[in-house]
């Protein structure tokens, strides 16, 4: 029972029905007051007409008491609900339409603000008016009242009917309000069904946004976008797991194979040393891989930038050029740099990010080519680019170039020393600095572009 009252559809229906019931109650009260006022005005017009008629009869001369009584009786024919009493101040009754005496003291006590008079005779309620006039040179008082029993009976029935109609209408509105809200919230139920069917093996289902109400379309679009992100993240995670297994398996296989061969028969001491040196290289490779993965984990979860400094980018680039010059010379490659700019960054992290780009350009660049670097400031942005000759990469390869352990070589042979995490580390470091890195391949050239946003109020 508690769950039913905790539903959004029922809450909407109750709120809507409460507002409707209040409106119906006000409308019923206003209609009731208008009908009551209409009957009162109708009764007043009838009474005032009879008073004028009686006054006209009393003004006639030479009327005997019997003639006066007959004329007044004829004037009330067809008005059985009217009572008339004419009396002199001393209490002498000149005319009385009924045998029931109207107590003048009671009438005076119950006079209302609009000069209506109310009184009761034998459980019958009367509304009336009192008029003063001269008759035979003596003041008289004309009291005319009308029986309101029929009006009161009609108003009571009318009020009850309004109440029954209001209650029935409110119940009707509650039900159809709940039904409309339930129908309107069905897309949310569809979202729940889609969410229940989501698993690592099934992420392809999406909500049809064109069938969803406008109010829920932003939620449906965000839900579909979330599923797209999850599907891409899961695909990357699956590829990462496969790549990681391959990267770890290769050095482990080398270690086991060399150790098994070494132990297959007795050998000289220098043979054992060669195997140990070879194993040490593989272990160092595994160690670097683990260190890089730990660094990536720190940059993505909780690593905060410290020791930020204003760095002249051209000086940092020249330092890296001097460091890699000997390695580049082995492949007959040369460096060329133009431009200058200043950024706010952590020197150690920035140097590591740029070092990975330089190392990548030398490893995969064509021999006897030029590695070109450039930095400049444009519209509150500092842009650094590094360009080298290299193999043409497809759009799919470019989109995955920053994935961990991704290699463009489909054979996955480790031709160069490295962990396959350099570009991923570079991207993580730049993300920490609020920078963005892009890559494109055209005309046998690979161009990496880094964009730094300049923040004037950044603490150094």
UniProtKB/TrEMBL annotation:
NCBIfam families: cztS_silS_copS. The lineage of its organism: Bacteria, Pseudomonadati, Pseudomonadota, Gammaproteobacteria, Moraxellales. It catalyses: ATP + protein L-histidine = ADP + protein N-phospho-L-histidine. This is Sensor protein. Member of a two-component regulatory system. It comes from the Bacteria. It holds the Pfam family CusS. Residues 182-235 form the HAMP domain.
